[in-house]
């Protein structure tokens, strides 16, 4: 059976493969590999990296939450190394992904958690509400309020004037009768 518009049977001749622009073929998965040459460091910079690694190792060996001085030294040497290397490279190549700033943050959180548990355990669970005492040395008027009344603004003075006028008119009418 013929399924083409022209009526010819093309089953013997398959269509040619579609042409694809260069670099866009599906089977060609090319990756661009750019090798960045390693940074050339001078002797002082290499020594700074060695000091950073040594202080980091000393901190990790004596890792105790009371050893904040070693962590401060690690952070200061990290800052020195950061002046000539980007921090991502330091973390990836020289500290195995260990970040001293996140370490400091975790230590502070743990210290805060320790403090909050100590304070909560010291609280007396049977502590009742203490009723405040009323100072009876100065008796106040029964209608007085604990706050001072605001002075009336000039916008409402006309209302007060009209109220007083109505009262005076009523008083005058009452006297005349």
Structural write-up:
It is a single chain. By secondary structure, the chain is mainly alpha-helical. The chain has 5 helices and no strands. Helix 1 (43-61) packs antiparallel against helix 2 (68-82) and helix 2 runs antiparallel to helix 4 (100-122). The longest helix has 23 residues, at 100-122. The protein starts with 42 loop residues before the first helix and ends with a helix. The mean pLDDT is 74.
Terminus-to-terminus distance: 122 Å
Number of strands: 0
Radius of gyration: 43 Å
Helix content: 40-55%
Structural class: mainly alpha
Low-confidence stretches at least 5 residues in length (pLDDT < 50)?
Answer: none
Percent in strands: under 5%
Question: Can you summarize this structure?
Answer:
With 177 residues, the protein is mainly alpha-helical. 48% of the residues lie in helices and 0% in strands.
Please supply descriptive tags for the structure shown above.
177 residues, mainly alpha, 5 helices
Ordered list of secondary-structure elements with their pairings:
Elements: H1 43-61, H2 68-82, H3 87-94, H4 100-122, H5 157-176
Helix pairs in contact: 1-2, 2-4
């Amino acid at each position: 059976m013929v399924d083409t518009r022209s009526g010819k049977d093309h089953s013997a001749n398959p269509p040619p493969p579609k042409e694809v622009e260069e670099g866009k073929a599906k089977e060609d998965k090319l990756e661009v590999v750019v090798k960045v040459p390693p940074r050339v460091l001078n002797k002082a910079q290499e020594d700074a990296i060695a000091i950073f690694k040594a202080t980091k190792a000393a901190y990790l060996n004596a890792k105790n939450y009371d050893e904040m001085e070693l962590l401060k030294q690690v952070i200061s040497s990290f800052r020195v190394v950061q002046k000539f290397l980007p921090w991502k490279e330091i973390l990836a190549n020289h500290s195995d992904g260990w970040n001293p700033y996140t370490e400091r943050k975790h230590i502070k959180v743990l210290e805060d958690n320790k403090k909050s548990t100590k304070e909560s355990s010291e609280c007396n669970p049977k502590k009742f509400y203490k009723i405040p005492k009323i100072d009876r040395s100065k008796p106040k008027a029964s209608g007085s309020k604990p706050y001072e009344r605001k002075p009336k603004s000039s916008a409402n003075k006309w209302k007060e004037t009209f109220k007083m006028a109505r009262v005076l008119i009523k008083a005058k009418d009452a006297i005349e009768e």
